[in-house]
Amino acid sequence: MFVGTGTMRTLRNHIDGEWVESSAGDCLDITNPATAEPLCRVPLSTARDVDQAVAAARAAFPAWRAVPPVVRARHLFRLKHVLDQRFDEIAAIITRENGKTLDEARGSLRRGIENVEHACGIPTLMMGRALEDVAAGIDCEYVRQPLGVFAAVTPFNFPAMVPMWYEAGLPPGVLNLVHGGKEAVQALLEHPDVTGISFVGSSAVARHVYEEAAKHGKRAQALGGAKNHIVVLPDADFDRAVTNVSESLFGCAGQRCLAGSVVVTPGKAYAPVRDRLVEAAKNLRLGYGLDADVTMGPLVSGRHKERVLSYVEAGRRDGAELLLDGRATRVERYPRGHFVGPTVFDAVRPEMTIGREEIFGPVASVTRVADLDEAIDVIQRSSYGNATSIFTTSGRAAREFRYRVGVSMIGVNLGIAAPMAFFPFGGTKGSFFGDLKAHGQDAIEFYTDKKVVMSRW
Q1: For the chain, N or C: smaller number of CB within 10 Å?
Q2: Number of helices and strands (H, E) in the chain?
Q3: Distance of CA 382 to CAs 100, 209, 320, 385, Å?
Q4: What is the C-alpha separation between 100 and 294, in angstroms, rounded?
């Protein structure tokens, strides 16, 4: 996995069942975002590295395609066993790399395991359909067949997963890992032996990936950014609602695509929700995620911290009222950590920078509206459509909301509208580019072709 000596080890790529050095000359330094401890260096792999990985996958494809689905599923069951067995170890790695609290790391890992569990049902998920006598003496059926080599461009580096796959006994070449940046992604998009691309990242890059993939005749699912609104109606249980809303806004330090960003408060909900939200934010405890009682960790890097701070300044410049300022927050034990405390703005209008752009940090906006109709209008005006939530005790209001709002993932009395692994995951508008979403049956559709066979004997 590593090459070199000293504290800053350089990660290797995993190609054709072996850990190999990248041909890259440039690397990124990865540090613990809470302690600033050096962890490793990640190579920005070249097109040549990508070509080697694709060649290995293409060579492995015919034999792997011929493996019966029940046998493939056994590899997945072994992977699940390894992940469960080393659960705490992997969760701690996530905390050290990404800054999440240990509970958040465990939660994200559990989500990953749920996806593996769902994939264990591949013998059933891959089944086709048949119908006799579609015409006199003619039968028709379709079967699902894998299409070829696919690439996944993921938003966070997760090197712990590849050794786990290796322990699951996958044949060489079936799964390859290439660390990289723009050059590696572009090489995948242009490679003639890559059938499709699955991407998660910013909307600007997601659009580029989708357009480039289409230009080169590839399938693409490109998940982009988000600006998620949470509506709290006057009939909601404010204490329960704000507990959930606070977790949505500030969990993972706001660094997740399902995080709430704008709290929309119609009518009499405005003042009690605003005041409770500020108090909840003040009670969060910042620190290193491996320490006890920490409820919010740092941002992932110093560069990202500066980006988040620039949005706080933009909010002030545009005239929003800063109710809680987290910019000066310090954690005494970790003076070099990339910490930004919970920040809350009031009087945020949809046209403001912080009201329309993705911040990806612990910065909450409160927007006051007259009623549910205006709340829905605020959401509909957004260029994003990833997730949204409503808190209410009215079934009629909840139905009206879910019926009218043009967002793909909706929570009712839930702050995080996170679908389970067997449901589709992805947004609309500027949050998603493609046709078939991630997870669930859509994932099976994305990676396979339906071959139709007409028979007469």
Answers
A1: C
A2: 15, 22
A3: 28, 22, 18, 7
A4: 10
Report the domain count for the chain.
2
CB 372 within 8 A of CB 271: no
Tens of pLDDT, residue by residue over 379-415, are 999 999 999 999 999 999 999 999 999 999 999 999 9
Q: Please give the C-alpha separations between residue 243 and each of 99, 227, 237, 258, 284, in angstroms, as whole numbers.
A: 22, 20, 10, 16, 11
DSSP 268: G
H or E segment to which residue 265 belongs: strand 260-266
**Of 40, 120, 252, 257, which residue is the catalytic one?**
257
Q: Does residue 187 belong to any structural domain of this protein?
A: yes
Q: What is the pLDDT of residue 431?
A: 98
Structure tokens, 413: 């009395």
Residue-number span of the structural domain to which 330 is assigned: 228-420
pLDDT, residue 7, reads 59
CATH number for the domain that contains residue 371: 3.40.309.10
* Residue-wise pLDDT tens digits, 300-358: 999 999 999 999 999 999 999 999 999 999 999 999 999 999 999 999 999 999 999 99
Residue 172: inside a domain, yes or no?
yes
257 is catalytic: yes
* Amino acid residing at 395: G
